[in-house]
Amino acid sequence: MSEGERLTELAKRRGFYFPSSSAYGGAAGFWTYGPQGAALKSNIEDAWRDRYVVKEGHQEISAPDVMPEPVFEASGHLDGFDDMIVECGECGATHRADHLVEDNTDIEEAESLPNEEVMDLIAEHGIECPSCHTSLADQPVDNFNLMFETNIGPGSSSPGYLRPETAQGIFVEFPQLSEYARNQLPFGVAQIGKAYRNEISPRKSLVRVREFTQAELEHFIDPEENEPPLAEVEDVVLPLYSVADQQAEDGGQRELTVREAVDDGVVESEWVAYYLGVSKEWYERIGVDMDRFRYRQHLAGERAHYASDCWDAESEVDGDWIEITGFAYRGDYDLSKHADHSGEDYTVFKQYDEPITVERATVDPDMSYLGPEFGGSAGAVADALEALAERNPDAFDDDEVTVEVDGESHTVPVEQTNFSVDEVTENGEHIRPHVIEPSFGVGRIIYTVLAHAYETDEVDGEERTYLDLPPEQAPTTVGVFPLMDKDGMAELATDIAGDLRAAGLSVTYDDSGAIGRRYRRQDEVGTPYCVTVDYESLEDGGEAQRASESASGDEPRAGTVTVRERDTTEQKRLPIDGLAETLEQLSTGDRTFDDL
């Protein structure tokens, strides 16, 4: 059984995740998180918020999943959000063409290749349809847009789409969000939410799906002035797999500190380098195995249309490297596009320290001339003249000036433009921020954390499976068991479980089966600590008195319990009084089990 198959079996059996709608045959690419998975997902999202929202001082929003078509016309998703598709001429099955090449050759990143080259590779390597094994040679490789289309309201007059990324919900609202930030750069806006992509070939459980959760941060900066606090992470060692290393015959991953990566030009943007450093520490915190982790730079052909540079955080699972986060320098692409398409102002006003006097070229076209001369194009001609005056005032030095509108040239006498150059005093300027984006795939991170936490050993002559999850991420912090359901042990264990829940700990109560089997069940879902109530617990404090005091809550509990640590299976007797505080300190790392 492969690592992925083993993980999927455990995930379904223990309630982490399983295919959705199986009673009706299911739908590929959709998964339901069970009780354990939903709790793990929530814990990872909370850890993300803590690091990227709270500690960074950013805002968080929640935008709609459905957005109108013009949003995606502006963003470029309607024209450029495609994957390569090939259809079998025999059975009609469709497949992701670049994945077929990667699965059947030594090529790792076929996504970066042109469609024609992928088609040639399919023919060259005799790649067959996985469904019916007919040759796919000479079948065309086309582009397939991944967005789910819908209609907003009745009829088809208002088309919309399920968002393929959460980012556009931030970019579209930038004018409002910048006001909340008092128009002071830099500022960041974060969002955790669902995104949807109509994948051609969903596969590998949570790795490639049609509905998934993203945790994205859009950090808006003034590229001329704002610098990241690089000193905070400059000594963090990054495992980097750059474009140059990927293209070299003997190239491989290199380990450089954040400072070395910036100084050597391996990572061009200091802001991207900063977030690589921050994120490396965060991945370690949530349980990603750093021996199975790297940052890989995008090749030119696979880089998104909006990104001038992009690095992926990748984890190794089952022999494959999977992207879990993308770090992109998006420049001002998104804000410029939305400004152009909407006509709204997507800038912030940058106040100068001191007013400055500058020469400013302006035009005030005579519309009584432009209207009769250019008809319906007059307004566009006037706009083009204004833009030209700002961009190239020297163009107005001659008697006539020519502008282009919709591919057609229009010549205007300069005297009809009322061109002038005047001295003006300015207190500031409107600038369009640039954007740094770390975009995290929550499902893939969950898949990685579970795979990297999966461990086996032998306890009392039996093989044991356990998840070595950090206590902060574990779905349940503590399991509480009565040794047996008799003589008041169950009552005391129930009371202790209630006290621990009241203290804010995630608790499961289990009185079913042998105590060893109960331990194994908790080991398999990663519960770091188990508390067992036994006869000694009753003898230590007096069952009846404790039960009475528990009901009233007036007195601290007497007695002790057995506390078991997951990874080592070591057990210690601890007092019931103060148990919640002790378990909380163990979970946060303020104390270790050896210190007890």
From TrEMBL:
Residues 5-482 form the Aminoacyl-transfer RNA synthetases class-II family profile domain. Residues 540-596 are annotated as: Disordered. It is found in: Cytoplasm. SUPFAM superfamilies: Class II aaRS ABD-related, Class II aaRS and biotin synthetases. Belongs to the class-II aminoacyl-tRNA synthetase family. Pfam families: HGTP_anticodon (PF03129), tRNA-synt_2b (PF00587). GO terms for biological process: glycyl-tRNA aminoacylation. This is glycine--tRNA ligase. It comes from the Archaea. Its EC number is 6.1.1.14. The keyword Disulfide bond does not apply. It comes from Haloarcula vallismortis ATCC 29715. Keywords: Aminoacyl-tRNA synthetase, ATP-binding, Ligase, Nucleotide-binding, Protein biosynthesis. Coiled coil: none annotated. GO terms for molecular function: ATP binding; glycine-tRNA ligase activity. GO terms for cellular component: cytoplasm. NCBIfam families: glyS_dimeric, PRK04173.1.
